[in-house]
Every structure is written in structure tokens, then in C-alpha cells.
Amino acid sequence: MSIHREPKNSSSPETLIVGAGLAGLAAASFLKANKREVLVIEAAGEVGGRVRTDVHGEFLFDRGFQVLLTAYPELERHVDLDALDLCYFESGAVLVKEDKLSRLIDPAKRPLAVFPAALSRSLKTKDKLRLLKLRILLSKSWEPKSDISMELALQEFGFSREAIGSFFFPLLSGIQLTPRLEGSARLGFYILGCLFRGSAALPSRGMGEIPKQMSQRLPEDSLMLNSPVESIAGRDVFLKNGLKFQPAQLIVATDGPSASQLLGIETVYSRSQRCMYFSAPAAPSKDSAIFLAGDGQGPVRNMAILSNVASSYATGTEALIVAAMPGNNDVTEGEVLSQMHRWFGECVDEWRHLKTFAIAHSQPLFEPGRPFRRRLEISDNCFVCGDHRDTPSIQGALVSGRRAAETILNKV
Ligand SMILES: Cc1cc2nc3c(=O)[nH]c(=O)nc-3n(C[C@H](O)[C@H](O)[C@H](O)COP(=O)(O)OP(=O)(O)OC[C@H]3O[C@@H](n4cnc5c(N)ncnc54)[C@H](O)[C@@H]3O)c2cc1C
């Protein structure tokens, strides 16, 4: 793991990158691979930004419930997936409607399960057939003709209100961190395509292992932690600790709101997530799929029994459970437990609340019509990257970091 390192020449690194999230690390490793000198300056005491994992006794807590979609095309350029020792969610989902659980199995991944899936009462046959059609289209990188809201696009595709409400709503509101389906359909279908083409997974040592792995490929003296940047004027970068840098090129790879403040560019609006971790003497179910709240009753949109997916997330005798409430920041532990009680019964009385994360800026807003790739150039020698310049995802952050590095390489 990289720790605070003093740069060799603190006055003039060739390229200075502000922010050691996935975008900043992607830019740094791409430049380094092309023999450029880089210095990454990070405000926090560790790399990863929004993708970090805390160790809490025998439990691992990702900072917010998030998953790695293995079909993200950009991953293979930056991440050694084998070394992450991935643990996979079961494909499909467990739908909870009127407090009854039913399994929705993905027939393309489990062909032998088609028959039971067809019998499942969670979706009507017409909607299951539409889902199959959508799956086939998305496997060929299909896109909607025009970018409208995801809710409208699903209606136009022919899904019933019931299927939209009970399946797409909890699935996509959990991924896109919005309590509604008002966001871009082009993005929604892109994410669904990645979900269908690959798997949802967790690195066995937590999501934070992704940026840790990326940072370990950087040279010893190219990362400064605990060093918040206070202001930027042209190419002059002023740190809160009094240091000043004047690099030949500057990449601002912070989250959107910080980039807006440092560079005076347009405001980036946020989607938030509150998530709660619980331990239980025993897992309430054997399922390792994501559970979706198909009836919208209660604050939890989706949840998972993490210790069923990755036993390394809970190394003691207890199970680890995570419940996610996108955009719902007022919800109490009691409200979450009461919903879980309706789903799993009396065993929930023995659950113990471990930790709550309330993350105000989890993802930037992505409204219909917004382009996937946005301009990175602020001036001839100043660039901005991060998930707010691409899709609001791990994929988007990595792409934007690489694009910023490529822009510099093409210029100089
Ligand atoms: C709860 C939650 C759930 C998510 N779920 C998923 C998911 O399931 N799948 C998915 O693909 N994506 C998910 N995401 C989104 C994904 O994590 C982000 O899109 C991605 O990590 C953004 O990376 P980034 O490098 O652009 O920004 P960040 O990770 O925000 O990195 C920016 C870095 O800049 C640093 N910084 C900021 N200001 C300064 C300053 N002044 N000086 C120095 N450093 C500074 C920050 O400390 C940070 O380290 C989720 C995010 C959250 C929070």
C-alpha cells in the first residue's frame, strides 16, 4: 500500500494530478506507462476516493454498498481482476413483493433454470419475454434511439407498470442511486447491458482493493497523501499545508463538486446514498443474489447478505448484511429493521446495527441527453477528469482518467 511520500522535486512535477480516486490513478498509471513523470496529490490519508473499504474487527465495510460489474470494458486496461480474487453475486435477483420472496433467475446464465423462472410469479410472462428480448438486444450493444428518462424508455419498450415498479425500479434505483427512474435511459440501458454481459462481484478484500492495486503500480515517490489542495490559479496549485506547485500540465481528478469549486466550472449535482451494515447470528437466507424491494414498501431499495457472497467480508461466526437507501438520508435504523422484519421474520430481532454510511456525493446526476464523454480541456495545460466527465461509475472514472492522460500525450 502506498503511503505518504515526498516528491523528488516538489516545485515542478511534469504532470500534477489532484485526487487519487480511480480517475486520478488511471491518469497517473497511463502517463507513467508512457514514461511521463507524475505526482498525485490526495487530500485523504489513503487512495480510492469513493471506492474504499474499512476493516472493522472481523467485518469489511465498503464505504457505501457498491459492486464491480466485470463487463465494464475499461477494467482490463487498469485492473488485474484475477489478483482481486473476485467473489460473485448470484445472477438474477430475489424480488420481495408483499413481503414474499421470489427468485428471478437469468435464463442466459442458468439455462437449466428457465423453467422454474418461467413459473415464478415475480413477473408476468409478457414481461419475462420482453426482458429476454432486451437482454438479447443489449448483448449487441443496442441503444435507445433518443435519450429520454429510463421510466419512459421502459414503458416504450413495452414493459408493464408492474414490471417497471417491482423489478427495474429497485434494481436501477440501487445502481443509479436515485429514488426514481428520471435519469438517462441511454445510461440505464448501458449499465443493464454490463450487468447482463458479465457478473456483479466483490473483491475478496473489499472494493478498496481496486484503487490499492492501481496505486501499487505507481513509482514510490509519485503519491502525496494527506495533502488537500486549497486553490488553483492557472497552473499554480496551492496546498493547505503551504506548499505550492507549478507543473507543466495539471489534471484535476477530484469529485465533481470539488472540481467545480477549484476550477470555477459548472456546478455538479449529486446523488446520495445511505447504507447500513448489520451483523446477524445466522444469515436470514442462503441467497447470494441482490434482494430488491419490489413493492416499494419501506426505505430499503436493495440489500444483500454480503457474507453469502464473500465469506472474507465476515470472518467470524456472524453473517454480514448491507441495506441500501439511495437518496434517502433521513431513514432510521428502526425503519430499516422493521422492513427487514417483514421480509425475514423474527430472526431480525437478533440483528445488530454495526455502521451507517451517509454519502452526500455518491454519484453525479446524469440527466437524459447528457453525453457519455464530456470535454476535459480547461486550458492548454489544465485538464479535468472524473466520473462527472463521463458516466457516473467505476467505468466512467477510469475512462475519463485515461482520456485526460491521452490528451496530454497527444499534445506534448
Ligand atoms: C455509495 C456509492 C455506491 C456506488 N455504487 C457504484 C456501483 O455499484 N458501481 C459503479 O460502477 N460505481 C458506483 N459508484 C460510483 C463510483 O464509486 C464513482 O463513480 C467513482 O469511484 C468515481 O471516481 P473518481 O476518481 O471520479 O472520483 P473520487 O472517487 O471522488 O476521487 C476523487 C479524489 O479526489 C480527492 N480530492 C477531492 N478534493 C481534493 C482536494 N481539494 N485536494 C486533493 N484531493 C482532493 C478525494 O479525496 C478523492 O480521493 C458508487 C459510489 C458510491 C459513493
Total strands: 21
What is the assigned CATH homologous superfamily of the largest domain?
A: FAD/NAD(P)-binding domain
Radius of gyration: 22 Å
CATH fold-type name of the largest domain: FAD/NAD(P)-binding domain
Structural class: alpha+beta
Q: What is the topology, as strand order, of the major beta sheet?
A: 8-7-16-17-18-15-19
Shape: globular
Low-confidence runs of at least 5 consecutive residues: 1-9, 111-119
Distance between the termini: 31 Å
Bound compounds, please? flavin-adenine dinucleotide
What is the mean predicted local confidence, pLDDT? 91
Q: In the residues, how many domains can be counted?
A: 3
Describe this structure in words.
The protein is of the alpha+beta class. It folds into three domains: 141 residues, FAD/NAD(P)-binding domain; 137 residues, Polyamine Oxidase, Chain A, domain 2; 83 residues, protoporphyrinogen ix oxidase, domain 3 (Orthogonal Bundle). The protein contains twelve helices and 21 strands. Strands 8-7-16-17-18-15-19 form a seven-stranded mixed beta sheet, sandwiched between helices. A six-stranded mixed beta sheet has the order 10-2-1-14-21-20, with helices on one face. Strands 5-9-6 form a three-stranded antiparallel beta sheet, with no helix packed on it. A hairpin with a 4-residue loop joins strand 12 and strand 13. The chain is globular and about 65 Å long. The protein starts with 14 loop residues before the first strand and ends with a helix. The structure holds flavin-adenine dinucleotide.
